């Protein structure tokens, strides 16, 4: 396992992609976290498991420039209009990440028992070689990358208020996950800013 979490701004991946970790970028991360926990209309995510629709423990919300639908795990999610705080965070993230985004998928993990299994964000609606900026608020959590062929693993610790940007061929060649961390008893909100290609139904 390669551990590169201290190399702010450098490419964490050894090949076949680009992941840059910028560390904490927000001066008022605690305030942003409190506002998001209070104001976002959180709902349990839904996924199909063995043909059955099930609720996840993790909660989500989906926002964007238009009321388009984003489908993953077999379920369509309809974007809500940006809130003022999300617009503020989008402007900050775009400035640091040097990219523009038209949507944001938010995940709320109540504690370390809530996790995300191995996956790639490679839906057709996001295009090829897409850029995704991941902003973390709340509890610090481990985040892992695993190459699809070589199975080489890269680990990074996502700090409060930190930004991680995935771009290039990352989604084609690498999986990523948020593993269970039993000792974490505080919430984490993850905002993944994306560029959605298809507007409308």
TrEMBL record:
GO molecular-function term, one example from the UniProt record: dioxygenase activity
Sorted UniProt keywords: Dioxygenase, DNA damage, DNA repair, Iron, Magnesium, Metal-binding, Oxidoreductase
Organism: Dinghuibacter silviterrae
A Gene Ontology biological process term: DNA alkylation repair
Cofactor (UniProt): Fe(2+)
Pfam families the record matches: 2OG-FeII_Oxy_2 (PF13532)
Residues annotated as domain Fe2OG dioxygenase: 100-197
Listed name of the protein: Alkylated DNA repair dioxygenase AlkB
InterPro entries documented for this protein: AlkB-like (IPR027450), AlkB-like_sf (IPR037151), ALKBH3 (IPR032854), Oxoglu/Fe-dep_dioxygenase_dom (IPR005123)
Sequence intervals crossing the membrane: none
């Amino acid at each position: 396992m390669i551990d590169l979490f201290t190399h702010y701004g450098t490419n964490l991946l050894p090949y076949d992609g680009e992941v840059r970790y910028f560390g904490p970028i927000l001066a008022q991360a605690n305030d942003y976290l409190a506002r998001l926990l209070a104001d976002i209309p959180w709902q349990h995510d839904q996924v199909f498991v063995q043909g059955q629709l099930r609720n996840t423990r993790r909660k989500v919300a989906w926002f964007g420039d238009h009321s388009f639908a984003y489908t993953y795990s077999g379920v369509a999610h309809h974007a809500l209009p940006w809130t003022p705080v999300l617009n503020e965070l989008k402007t900050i993230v775009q400035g640091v990440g040097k990219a523009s985004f038209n949507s944001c998928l938010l995940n709320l993990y109540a504690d370390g028992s809530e996790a995300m299994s191995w996956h790639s964000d490679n839906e057709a609606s996001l295009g090829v070689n897409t850029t995704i900026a991941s902003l973390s608020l709340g509890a610090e959590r481990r985040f892992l990358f695993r190459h699809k062929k070589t199975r080489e693993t890269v680990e990074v610790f996502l700090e409060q208020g930190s930004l991680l940007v995935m771009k290039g061929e990352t989604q084609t060649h690498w999986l990523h996950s948020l593993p269970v961390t039993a000792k974490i008893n505080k919430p984490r909100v993850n905002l993944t800013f994306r560029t959605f290609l298809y507007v409308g139904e």
